[in-house]
Each structure stands twice: as C-alpha cells, then as structure tokens.
Amino acid sequence: MKQASLILMLSEMYKQHPRHYIAVDCSIFGYEDGELKLLLYPRGFEPSIGKWSLMGGFVQEDESMEEAARRVLLQTTGLKDIFLEQASAFSKPNRDPGARVISMTFMALIRIDIHDKDLVRENGAHWWPITKLPTLIFDHEAIVENALALLQQKASIDLIGKELLPEMFTLMQLRNLYEAIFQKTFDPGNFRKKILSIGILEKLNLKNTTESKKGAFYYQFKNSETGMKSERIVKFP
Questions:
Q1: 185: how many CB neighbours lie within 10 A of its CB?
Q2: Cβ-contact 195, 159 below 8 angstroms
C-alpha cells in the first residue's frame, strides 16, 4: 500500500513539469576521392520538408540514446559495427519549430566503400564534401561544426585511419586523409616521420604503383589496433 501511494505521489509530482521530445542527430563522416564527406538527406516531413538534414530520429521508450543512434545508422547505411561517439547536446527551446526537442548529437565514422549504397539512395541521402555543404535545417550546421571539432581533436591525439580508409593504404593516402580532416597541408617528410614513430602501422610487401614510378608501399594497422584507441600520442596538427 505504501508503495502504491509513493508511486501516485511521484506521478503527481512529475505531472507538474513539462515533457519534452528527445532526439538523436548523427554527423556521419566518410572519406572518398581525397575529401572528407558528410552524409545528409532531404527531410521527409514538415517543418522544413525537403531541406537538407543530418540523419536522426526520436528516442523510443525502450532504447537508450546510443541505441537510438545505432538504429538510425543501421537503417541509413546497413552497417552495425560503426565507430560512434557522443558529441554534445543541443537544447535551445526554439531550436525545432515543430516542438520542444532536445537533441543528443553523435559523431560517426564509416568507410564509404563498404556501406549499403542502395539503402542510402532509398533514403534520398547524399555524400557532401564538408567544404561544399548545402544550407542545413535548424541548428544542424552548428551540430556539424561541433562534430568536426571533435573529430579534429581525436585526430590530433590518436591515429585515425582504420575507420575511414581501406584496410591497406599508403602513407600518402593517410596524409591526404589528415589534410582533409584539418583542411591544411602537411609536409610529406615530417608527416611520414611522425606517423612511423608511433609504431602501430605494419609495412606490407606490396606497392601501389599509381602514386609514383617507384611505387609506394602499402601499410595496415597492426593486429587489433584501431587508430582511435591508441595510447600513443600523435600530436597533430
């Protein structure tokens, strides 16, 4: 009886406070043709129907915010094992003209070469270079800026590559990725020296002959090294 009274009292107390919608918005980054890209889709409902938006959705009653984000990613790209990290929360009362929506934002990294291209097309989604993004709805431009800053922060202390590059890559391809992330040029010699000093890459006895006449050796991450969980400090840029 006491338990029932307590539940009733709490229920009445909670009713005195406003209820809000909770959503997740995902900044999905990929790398292709020497450019860092962002996956966007045309919003399918009002307000702002047809305008470019981040991938997202509302958190359901039986899932956590991370579970909601992974559901959105699976429905969008067909991939389960995606690097995903919570970025920030956006909660201005008027951020969504449709209702009071608090959004937890996430940064995701995927390999464009292995995601489900047909599924992406079904959603009307498109990969946009971060240097040529269209106008986005609501506060999504600020969300992207926040996620990109997080990516740059992580790339400055841990070696990023496995989440965005093919399994085998040259040091030039890795440098091009870093230049795309930071939007700046790195000295080839200094970059090579710094990267090899970290000791988490394995040189393969196989060359890419498209980069030079001599060819460039391919590398891969050693064993289970991910490049995002290394204890070695990269210190870029």
A1: 11
A2: yes
Q: Which residues contact 36 (CB under 8 A, 6 or more apart)?
A: 29, 30, 129, 130, 177, 180, 181
Show the domain range for 214.
159-221
- Which CATH number is 208's domain given? 1.10.10.10
Residues 52 and 48: their CA atoms lie apart, in Å, by 9
Query: What was the pLDDT predicted at 229?
Result: 47
Whether residue 175 is found in the same domain as residue 100: no
Phi/psi of residue 142, nearest 5 degrees: -65, -35
Task: Please answer whether residues 200 and 220 qualify as being in contact, where contact means their C-beta atoms are separated by less than 8 angstroms.
Answer: no
Query: Longest Cα pair distance anywhere in the chain, in angstroms?
Result: 84
Contact between residue 195 and residue 208 where contact means Cβ atoms under 8 Å apart? no
Question: What DSSP assignment string belongs to 38-50?
Answer: EEEEE--SSSSTT
The reply to whether 173 and 59 lie within a common domain is: no
129 and 172 assigned to the same domain: no
Least-confidence region, from 30-34, 161-165, 181-185 = 161-165
Q: Mark whether 92 and 195 lie in a shared domain.
A: no
Residue 236 placed within a domain = no
3-state secondary structure of 24: strand
Joined tokens for residue 126: 């498109």
Dump pLDDT digits (tens) for 108-156: 999 998 888 888 888 889 999 999 999 999 999 999 999 999 999 999 9
Give the contacts of 96 (CB within 8 A, at least 6 positions apart): 47, 138
